[in-house]
Amino acid sequence: MNSQNNNNGLLWAAAGFTAFLAARALYRNINKYSFSDKTVLITGASRGLGLVLARQLAAEGAKLAICARDVDELETARREFAGMGAEVMTITCDVTDRNQVHEMISSIRERFGGIDVLINNAGVIQVGPMESMTLHEYEETMKTHFWAPLYTMLAVIPHMKEQGAGRIINISSVGGKISLPHLVPYSASKFALVGLSEGMHAELKKDGIVVTTVCPGLTRTGSPRNVIVKGQHEKEYAWFKTADSLPFMTMDAEQTAYKILEASRQGDAELVTTLSGKFITAFHGFFPGATSELLGIVNKILPAAGGIGSTERKKGYESESGKSETIATVLTDKAAQKNNEMGASK
């Protein structure tokens, strides 16, 4: 009898949990956030993932404010959106400069009246062994991945509070959950962004502002061409570009952008993309020590220090070689053509 009662209890608990999940899914679908006619500011939107996010938002009828440092890349993006019939404003801005950020926010508010959605996407990646990284690389990534998002958030939050609503999307990385060898400055700064973003989510939800922390796994945006490479730069670039291209390890930029916007639309606190990204994040959560030991083994097979060392920096496109131009990297090359990542080599 006790066994039967226990089984009945488990069945009722399972049924109740299933009903809760169904009701939650229905509520989330009914209360989805719409980006139509919303003013969306995207940093680093002239190429790569930022550009793909802007394309999808434009197709939904959002009003776009896109910023970047490169005037030519911004103009290429502007022409594309103008051809789509989208309402777009382009701003040349270095988001690591707080004064420039405030000027940008003021100009956007003057044109559109307010900012409904902020997407902190601007980023920088330096690839190479720890011995090749100087204090400059750490300062550069912290300025870009921590201070810049903080500047933009502090600038828009008061206005979002006045509106009683807003969406903020912070693009971190799986590298902001697990510190990866040969990407130490990048990972350290992305960890800082995760902490900032999670805290903002907890504190701002009461004001109707939803902050979503996004930790993409490897994403085929075409961005390897524009990473900074140090040490044995051709070898470093070859492994990085190849890893960025493998279909079973990576996700295309369009699918990633869709998932990001859906997560924000649903009001999710966090999104981790790619199966490999979810697996390694979960594994690290349960076995942080073992993860570090395994990554130590990976580090042994990565290029040793040397080459151009710590005093010189190369861009990805300057580091192309026979090892990085193979059938295994075709998908990244196609993505670079598609997502405005080619201009830097001109």
Overall pLDDT: 93
Mind telling me the CATH superfamily name? NAD(P)-binding Rossmann-like Domain
H/E series, N to C?
Answer: HEHEHEHEEHEHEEEHEHEHHEH
Radius of gyration: 21 Å
Structural class assignment:
alpha/beta
Shape descriptor reads globular
Low-pLDDT stretches are none
Strand order across the biggest sheet?
A: 3-2-1-4-6-7-11
Gap between N and C termini: 79 Å
Share of β-strand residues = 5-15%
Beta-strand segment tally:
12
Number of helices: 11
CATH architecture: 3-Layer(aba) Sandwich
CATH class (first level) name:
Alpha Beta
Biased composition (Polar residues): 337-346
InterPro entries: KR_dom (IPR057326), NAD(P)-bd_dom_sf (IPR036291), Sc_DH/Rdtase_CS (IPR020904), SDR_fam (IPR002347)
Family: Belongs to the short-chain dehydrogenases/reductases (SDR) family.
Organism: Rhodocytophaga aerolata
Question: What do these coordinates show?
Answer:
The termini are far apart. With 346 residues, the chain is of the alpha/beta class. The chain is built from eleven helices and twelve strands. It has one domain: NAD(P)-binding Rossmann-like Domain (Rossmann fold), CATH 3.40.50.
Helix and strand layout, with pairings?
Elements: H1 2-30, E1 39-43, H2 48-59, E2 63-68, H3 71-84, E3 88-92, H4 98-112, E4 117-120, E5 126-127, H5 135-163, E6 166-171, H6 184-204, E7 209-215, E8 219-220, E9 228-229, H7 233-245, E10 251-252, H8 253-266, E11 270-272, H9 275-286, H10 288-301, E12 314-315, H11 330-338
Parallel strand pairs: 1-2, 1-4, 2-3, 4-6, 5-9, 6-7, 7-11, 8-10
Antiparallel strand pairs: 9-12
Helix pairs in contact: 2-8, 4-5, 5-6, 9-10
Organism: Rhodocytophaga aerolata
InterPro entries: KR_dom, NAD(P)-bd_dom_sf, Sc_DH/Rdtase_CS, SDR_fam
Biased composition (Basic and acidic residues): 311-323
